Amino acid sequence: MKIDLNSDMGEGFGPYRLCDDEAMMKIVSSANIACGFHGGDPDTMGRMVRLAKQNGVGIGAHPGLPDRLGFGRREIPFQADELRQQMLYQLGALIAIARAERVAVSHISFHAAMGNMVNRDPLLADLMMDAIVTVDPSLVVFVTSGSEIEQAAKRARLKTLALFLADRAYDAGGRLVARGLPGAVIKDETAVRARVRKFLLDGSIETIDGGVIAMPARSILVHSDTPGALELAGIVRGEIEATGATLAPAAELAD
């Protein structure tokens, strides 16, 4: 079995960095690169693209809301077309920077509040997917299984890749537990290892209330701003390899 391991990267700004991006890039198979709104800047984006190229890692755009202080995790009541333009601005910037390095952007993964807003609104999801098609119909869209983004991407005939968030708790309905709630972010290495092993062996995960649900995904995400992210990513990769699976970038696995 092939599986993707990805992380949201380049989310610092100027001299400020959230994690050791150089080391993380040696662990993952796909990188979701912040495009300057919730995090990142042109120089950081260029550095991330070059690192991905050097390590054979798939390059993805990670657009978010223009809210550095809130790290793109606070919803702002933009109109639908404003969100569309913000996404296009960020995607276009990364495509240009990647093209200058003679590599291509292969996927897109919405960040935090922007993704939440799109996932709640089928019309907005269709608007966003149609915009992506006009830019590059070969782009893979990272999704959560059964989400509005997944359904809209399929309507737009875009390829998708379903994610399992190794460091985030899920409820019985398969939804992410809100970050402000106890236990929403999973930092314990033993717990992450057990969750990933269960997912790899039988395609299911334990929910925050102790139940078990199916998790139909082909990609595992570790957030780079989770405490101990580098160690957690190494644990996830170790579990992938221990089950006999191999890493592959998103572009190879999408359907």
From TrEMBL:
Organism of origin: Rhizobium mulingense
The enzyme's E.C. designation: 3.5.2.9
UniProt keyword annotations, A-Z: Hydrolase
Superkingdom, natural source: Bacteria
The name this protein goes by in its record: 5-oxoprolinase subunit PxpA
Claim: Hydrolase is one of the keywords in the record: yes
